[in-house]
Amino acid sequence: MSAPSTRPGSRTSPHLGTPLAWIGLGALLGALVGASGLLAPTLALGLGSSLVALGLRLGARPRAVLGPALALAAALATSGRPPAPPQSLGRAELVGVVSAIDARARPLLEVRSARSVGGEALDLDWVTLPSGVTLADEITLRATLSSFEAYRNLGPHPTYRSSVRRAFARDVVVLDARPAPSLDRWLIELRERVRRSIRASLADDVEGLVVALVLGDPSLEADDAADARASGLSHVVAVSGMHVTFVVGACLALLAAALRRIAPLARRLDPRRLSYLVGASVAPLYAAFAGGSPSAYRAAATASVTWLLAARGRRADALSVTGLVVVLGLVFTPQAARSPAFVLSVLATAAVLEPRGEGGAARTSPTSLASSIVLSATRASIATAPFTLYCFDTLPPLSILANIVVVPVVAAVLLPLGTVHAIVATLSVDLGRAIAAPTEGVVRAFLALSRFFAERGAHLAIPPLDALELVLVGALAFALLTARSKRGVALALFAAGLALSAAEVRLASSEAMRGALRVSFLDVGQGDATLIDFPDGEAWLVDAGGASFGASRDPGREAILPLLRARRRPHLDGVIVTHPHPDHYGGLRSLLRAIPIHEIWDSGQAAEEAPEGEWARTYAGLLVPLSTPEELCGAPRVHAGARLEVISPCPRFDPTLDANDNSIVLRLSFGRRTFLLMGDAEASTEARLAGSITPSDVVKVGHHGSRTSSTEAFVGASRPWLAVISAGANNRFGHPHREVLERWERGAVEVLRTDRDGGVTLVTDGERLEAVTSSGRRLEAPPWLSRGAPGLIR
Question: Of 289-298, 491-500, 553-562, which range is least confident?
């Protein structure tokens, strides 16, 4: 529902649009870029200029001069804020309200306060709880928290740090439980009643989408949700501005029509103005009822300001209201600047605002509602494409076409049908079943369209872009949105195509690492994965992490594949599985389905001892050469001077030992620098290797820092400059164990941990050796410390 029209003689709201938009967008973009010196305000100023120019006139020259100054000041203010340090989760005490159920039927705690056992305040929004608590209760509990944070690995694609702060709780002890405050309880119970009514009145294959559409719950089946993401239509089933405007706006229209029929009231009061006052009050409540997403609240705030102005007889200026809402949102909820939903909703709104002519009158709009929706969807898709690529690493290739085809259907048919069905079913489930057929038909049509666009674009996905390519895409989006002719569009596409092609060639060449060795210890949670880029351009992976011990995430799909795509690695020359445990090979399944792998090494133990086991089934039937220590020991591979050799188990695995102690142990050397990769080798293997271990520059610590590895003798023999421990944050095993960590801290110059520092990337030319972590730490090995030289003992 657009800004309400007014009668002749009504006044336009003060035209604050230009300065507010400059301030709001400058502050928003400054906060997104972060604390990075002059780069942040410069980028914010340039991008802010582009966004404000999306078809919007800057007005008189003084305002055009003042705008950049305001944007610069706002960007400086927000970009100067240092990013929050990573939170140290673990045992904590929480107070909150059990306000929702997730797609896996687990309760969600909306956190009001959270403190660690040490008294440190924790900044969390939601915590997923195991079952055993009651919906709509306010509870105090103690629990062990694990972060839901995305895997943190360094690649050419800039990392976006979202403000979404979620955790998973285990070992929960409820200290106190009481009914939530009345308004909270009423909203939660109403949501639950609507959810149950929808599910009881619709078929299983469609009820999840209607629940998501009406309540903002992530209730889609996993396959349907994946299709929505792959087709670029996931925003359709997340409650946003379109939903708030339609539902509340439609109710206001009905209310105004009803009030006009009450003659005595209509003579004394303007029914439309009264309905606007009601709408301004109801919109925030509806946003809370519909899931309370940042985009829903932004839309509700925009609608409330618009309707309050209309109730006073003023016509809302769209740019002014949007700028005001952005500024207020950043002032009162500064974390919103890092919420993808909030940022995308602001960009989309800025793109679809109609240009104003002199005097503030709107220029001629398309006569057809359908063509207007198509135009808005196209402009919104173009405007949000650069940020989507930055935030989510990729962009569905057919997303613009999918939105042009599907969004008008959703706005005109699916959303009204789903909303009406939810209301009817809540009043009477039997009546809801009776009228279910049209809703089910339209939902199935939407799911079919979503699947169609997802399948057609499956092999066309845009890979993660580096910073230069993102800037070029942003420039292209700006040019397309401001072009005034088909010739301008064609020129923009041609120039961008040339520039992006050149940038892509440059990126692929730089990521091939010709002449240097790069070793990346990846953050894959509680598991191991090491990516080696050899000086001759080959890429090898040592272990692939895995969805083990009940974890539902797949680091192969979520961490390793995105990094390979970002580094322009279309295949892997080799994969080494150190031993057949799922936290070391589980992610390999996704890799095998997605990219060619030319060779696999493993210890050979699983094939002999568990030929029907899970690891044996993983590679069974693959037309990929498989090598074992019998062939590998004593036969090092050399890649442009970099030497990779298997030093255990040699000459083959020992059947008296378990899989950990039969781990493949690797020595990697280039020039004067040496790396030692221990897999999950434990004390007996370390003792067996004691005579052959020489000081190394870098040791990948065995068994995630477990006390079963890293003996005093081994630490003293290896004496590295850097010890790297791969472990998941707050893992249930307590890795790395305190005594092991202290041992390495005494025996190495530096210790890095993937649970604290994220992924660790080391680059050497054979002489210099540098390390950088995704958390921002940079280290350089002393030039006098090299292979064969004594390590430092502290």
Answer: 289-298
